[in-house]
Amino acid sequence: MVEKVYVTYNEVHKLCQASADRILNDFTPNLMIAIGGGGYVPARILRSFLKRPAAPNIPIQAIGLSLYEQLPSSNPSNPVETPGTKVTRTQWLDLSSLEIANLVGKNVLIVDEVDDTRTTLEYAVKELQKDVQAAADKLGSGEKTQFSVFVLHNKDKTKKGHLPQDMMDDERYLAARTVSDVWICYPWEATYTHMVSVHQSVQSNMNASDIDEHDRLAASQANY
């Protein structure tokens, strides 16, 4: 049985807080790109910690990528999700507008919640680099765009995807925490159906709050 680890909003907040100084000092981002849907919440929390007096908020743009797929399960209320093999775009920057052009010459921080197989991150970095280079060529700009990556959790496992070697050599990849290959349950995924499937005691209390039960399970487990 796959081990599940429950992460609370409070823990996400603290992971972002603990990583902010390193990101601000070493990555110096001008702009963040959140990979949806897991990157939205940490990107927004992180922006507050990256804000400096008299300086504007760092803009956040969003892309949507899907890799996980549901597998057939003997229990319909407990679908099994596993990393797929093909990345699907569900949302992307508008190549016909200023969105891509605004990335040229910037320090761009890509934010996601988890680095599992690294396939999604590889796709995001490669495709963004390609699109930004095309925009730079169109503008006749020789400015360099530098990408960095931040994730809440990195799973300690063999990766299928790869990030650019210069990014890894320059340490422009940061995981707030490295964990074993566990199933990480984030608080924004807490729904009544999901909580019933993972902890049958919820069924005895139809008024139980999904997020309250999620937090209770998080409090009951040992530190990961």
Q: Which radius of gyration do the C-alpha atoms yield?
A: 19 Å
Low-pLDDT segments: 199-208
Compute the average pLDDT: 86
> Helix share of residues?
25-40%
Number of strands: 8
The main β sheet shows up as: 6 strands, mixed
Shape: globular
End-to-end separation? 17 Å
Main β-sheet, spatial strand arrangement: 4-3-2-5-6-7
Number of helices: 7
Strand content bin: 25-35%
Oligomer: single chain
Order of helices and strands: EHEHEEHEHEHEEHH
Overview of the structural elements:
Helices cover 35% and strands 28% of the residues. With 224 residues, it is an alpha/beta fold. The protein is globular, with a radius of gyration of 19 Å. The protein has seven helices and eight strands, in the order E-H-E-H-E-E-H-E-H-E-H-E-E-H-H. A six-stranded mixed beta sheet has the order 4-3-2-5-6-7, sandwiched between helices. Strands 1-8 form a two-stranded parallel ribbon.
Brief characterization of the structure:
This protein has helices spanning 9-27, 40-50, 98-101, 119-139, 165-169, 192-198, 210-220, and strands at residues 4-6, 31-36, 60-71, 80-91, 107-115, 146-155, 173-179, 183-185.
Main attributes of the structure:
224 residues; alpha/beta; six-stranded mixed beta sheet; two-stranded parallel ribbon
Set down the secondary structure blueprint.
Elements: E1 4-6, H1 9-27, E2 31-36, H2 40-50, E3 60-71, E4 80-91, H3 98-101, E5 107-115, H4 119-139, E6 146-155, H5 165-169, E7 173-179, E8 183-185, H6 192-198, H7 210-220
Parallel strand pairs: 1-8, 2-3, 2-5, 5-6, 6-7
Antiparallel strand pairs: 3-4
Helix pairs in contact: 1-2
